[in-house]
Design goal:
22% helix; 2 domains; 130 residues; alpha+beta; globular
């Protein structure tokens, strides 16, 4: 049996704001944006070159979901963007206005730096060790 984590939902205040950041600043590709009724959309984005996992951009509805925007993982890094060229992607992200919370550091598992999306979620940009 083969299983894959295919979609991970991330709460945002607005679909278009999510698309603007993930596609506009991070360079992800928009792979689907379909109206599903009642103002809801099925919006999928993924890093260029990725083939399996995609983010489902989910517009928060109601007070409980709105309160969870940016805190879906309790303030921890909850998302990990792997790269094959840390220096290239770090420079491109800085140029696009992505906010890094620390300088790049070298760990046993690779080169890493924490950044945030405009919604408050913490991400690792990570080039795994060889």
């Amino acid at each position: 049996m083969t299983q894959t984590i295919a979609r991970v939902a991330i709460l945002v205040p607005d679909y278009d704001a999510g698309i603007a950041f993930y596609c506009g600043r991070l360079g992800f590709e928009l792979i689907q944006d379909t109206a599903v009724g009642d103002g809801k959309r099925w919006v999928l984005v993924r890093p260029r070159g990725a083939t399996e996992t995609a983010l489902l951009i989910a517009r928060a509805e109601g007070d409980r979901q709105k309160a969870a925007i940016g805190n879906q993982t309790g303030g921890r890094v909850g998302f990990f963007l792997f790269t094959d060229d840390f220096a290239r992607d770090h420079a491109a992200m800085l140029a696009a206005g992505v906010e890094f919370l620390e300088m790049p550091r070298h760990e046993a598992y690779g080169t890493v730096a924490v950044f945030t999306d405009p919604f408050g979620n913490r991400w690792d940009l990570l080039q795994p060790a060889s």
